[in-house]
Structure formats: structure tokens, C-alpha cells
Amino acid sequence: MKTLALPAYAQLSDADEAALTDLFRRGTPPNTLRAWERDLAYIAAWKMASFGKPLA
Questions:
Q1: What's the pLDDT tens digit per position in 1-56?
Q2: DSSP 1-56
Q3: Cα(27)–Cα(16) distance, rounded to whole angstroms?
Q4: Which of 12, 28, 30, 31 has an alpha carbon 20 to 30 Å from 40's alpha carbon atom?
Q5: pLDDT tens for each residue of 12-24
Q6: What is the pTM of this model?
Q7: Which residues contact 40 (CB under 8 A, 6 or more apart)?
């Protein structure tokens, strides 16, 4: 799968990305974050078992 780069005007600065990440983490309930982490671990394990490749 080919990854396409975003145009310069659509890219976030490191400070903007950090601010949005912090806002997301503070605004998302801890139970939701834990559930998403478990879901992602399950999907990663499924992909490895099914295709022999890690989740990229």
C-alpha cells in the first residue's frame, strides 16, 4: 500500500499535533481510552494470526 504525503498546507506543526493530542486525551474518558487500546490489541493479534503480518 502506498502512503501519500499531505501537502504542506495540510500538515500540522509538532506543537499543533501535541496540543490536539493533549486535548483528545483530556477530553476522552479513561474507560473509552482503555476500550480502544483493547480493541486495537485484538485487531493487531487477529491480523498477525490471519495474515502473518503486524498491524502497520
A1: 688 887 888 888 999 999 999 998 899 999 999 999 999 999 999 999 999 999 88
A2: -PPPPPPGGGPPPHHHHHHHHHHHHHHS-HHHHHHHHHHHHHHHHHHHHHHS----
A3: 16
A4: 12
A5: 899 999 999 999 8
A6: 0.59
A7: 55
Say how far apart CA 51 and CA 38 lie, in whole Å.
20
**What amino acid is encoded at 37 in this protein?**
E
Sign of CA dihedral 4, 46, 43, 41: negative
Task: Let me know the angle formed at the C-alpha of 20 by 46 and 35, rounded to the nearest 5 degrees.
Answer: 30
